[in-house]
Design brief:
The chain is an alpha+beta fold. The protein contains ten helices and 15 strands. Helices cover 41% and strands 20% of the residues.
Length: 406
């Protein structure tokens, strides 16, 4: 009997050791165990690296499992596709949220499919009720998001009011200028706080991949000088500088370098209203503040901005210390450009880059879309860009004083 008991102990010890050995030899990787009740069976769940799917699984009984491996913790978008019959991205009903994925076991839970926010927010605005546990990197990301939350809320609420109070009436020629300026200043103040929090986070967490992600977000929201760009890259620890995220960050910053604050504007070869080849520098006036507004006749938001630009021209475009306005179309059809000029009655300088998306405007400034403007100081250096509506009003008041009638 004693021998049998001892033998059982040895056998059990061997089984435990074998289990430990097997677990130690398990390939490192992530395992995301999801629970989203109410999701129809057979729906696919994806991990997206923005627009590129990197992993997928199928939902059964409201549950799914995603497994794989990442070289470095990465922010993915976990999305359940409730519209498998749709092809176009704008038609799809994709629901889910961001997840910072590391090679650990992660739980992704939501009370129901209706608690998941939509990727296309215009479809359904749901704040979302998602719990992600098991990833320390995701926990750090959440703590960062929590710090931003009050300022993002403030910005969003001011923007919603701005659309109703200023933007929509302005498109019809009614300018509630004071209300628009007040709301824009509120949004500007919120954005300054967001940018401050982002810088503080990166400096406090230089070795975290989350900081690379935060820096990438800043490319789309903050406005940088070239010195700011260098500082941002240097703030990231050298251990992360060979990662795909850091390389993408460098590329993103290089793409916006032509519009960096403090840089001299780049000259362009264009045509005037008479079809004559001219240089942009022929029209930028030294000693005055200048605006170069890129637009196109086929661009709805561009045309929607023109009533406000006429309003700006009436207040600032004439007389002593005038604001020099130059519109540069990227139409590739001269007929369309000329027709728009007749319809819009823009009394300031009108030029065109008839090569459209293959022209000098795109090649030299790397802009991704129109409308887009550059604001130049009296020496021709960029002091702001991409300002529209009351953003431009606030800037003009700062540099040229308030010339709007009460």
């Amino acid at each position: 009997i004693n021998f049998n008991i001892e033998g059982m102990r040895i056998l059990l010890y061997g089984i435990v050791c074998l289990g430990t050995l097997v677990s130690c030899q398990r390939e490192p990787g992530y395992k995301i165990s999801g629970s989203v009740p109410g999701t129809p069976d057979g729906m696919k769940v994806y991990l997206y690296n923005w627009n590129t799917p990197v992993d997928s699984s199928v939902v059964k009984g409201g549950k799914f499992v995603l497994t794989g491996k990442v070289d470095v913790p990465t922010r993915y978008q976990l999305l359940i596709d409730l519209s498998p019959d749709k092809v176009e991205s704008y038609e799809k009903d994709l629901r889910g949220s961001d997840v910072f994925v590391d090679n650990v076991d992660i739980k992704y839970e939501s009370p129901s499919i209706d608690s998941l926010p939509s990727r296309n927010s215009f479809r359904r605005k749901v704040k979302g009720n998602v719990t992600v546990t098991g990833s320390p990197v995701h926990d750090l990301f959440l703590s960062y998001q929590e710090k931003l939350k009050p300022y993002r809320t403030r910005n969003s609420e001011a923007w919603d009011k701005y659309l109703q109070v200023y933007h929509i009436p302005a498109s019809e020629g009614v300018f509630n200028t004071r209300e628009g300026i007040a709301l824009t200043r509120e949004m500007n103040d919120a954005q300054k706080e967001i940018t401050r929090i982002q810088w503080d986070f990166i400096k406090a967490n230089p070795k975290s991949p989350v900081s690379v992600d935060v820096a990438q977000d800043m490319v789309y929201t903050a406005k940088f000088s070239k010195a700011d760009m260098d500082n941002l890259l240097q703030a990231i620890d050298p251990s992360l500088r060979e990662t795909p995220g850091y390389k993408q960050l460098k590329e993103s910053l290089e793409s916006i370098a032509p519009i960096a604050l403090g840089e001299k504007y780049k000259d362009l070869e264009l045509v005037d209203e008479n079809g004559k080849t001219v240089q942009l520098s022929d029209y930028v006036k030294p000693g005055q503040y200048n605006m170069v507004e890129f637009w196109a006749s086929w661009c709805g938001p561009c045309r929607g901005e023109i009533p406000h630009l006429r309003h700006v021209y009436d207040a600032y475009g004439k007389g002593k210390d005038a604001f020099n306005m130059i519109s540069v179309s990227i139409d590739d059809k001269e007929k369309d450009w000329k027709q728009a000029l007749k319809e819009e009655n823009m009394k300031w300088t009108q030029l065109c880059d008839l090569k459209g998306w293959k022209g000098e405007v795109i090649n030299k400034y790397k802009i991704q879309g129109v409308p887009f403007c550059l604001i130049l100081d009296k020496e021709g250096r960029i002091i702001d860009h991409g300002v529209r509506g009351s953003e431009l009003d606030v800037l003009l008041i700062k540099y040229l004083g308030d010339r709007y009638e009460e």
